[in-house]
Amino acid sequence: MAEMQKIRAGRHCTFAMHVHLVFVTKFRHKVFTDAHLRRMEEIMRSVCGDFECELVEFNGEDNHVHLLVNFPPKVAVTKLVNSLKGVSSRRLRQEFPDLVRHYWRANKLWSGSYFAGTVGGAPLSVVRQYIEQQNRPG
Fold first, then answer.
1. Which residues contact 128 (CB under 8 A, 6 or more apart)?
2. What range(s) does the Transposase IS200-like domain occupy (predicted)?
């Protein structure tokens, strides 16, 4: 939970924004092994880094994955999601030819939809601390 309270700072704002994402495989096919999931976490961590986001937690099963991402206000969640799904699908297909048999119909790994939920919020003590710091001379 300490990770959730980590406050980040940009040039003009201070923020603690997290989104819980869930991606489900196309047709809910059970395609992922532990090796697929380990590599997917690395790929998704890298994509998050490209967006100046942090992959705080990653977990998955044979037909879906969960991500908890700390993201800055300038990042549009839809753009992050499109990149996460697109890059992971492309790289996994290249690196694991055994997945190709699950692509025969739509040539896509992921369902077109996804779940995104905001997580947490700053405790009042953190908000109060921020406001008090703004009143101090620079």
1. none
2. 14-134
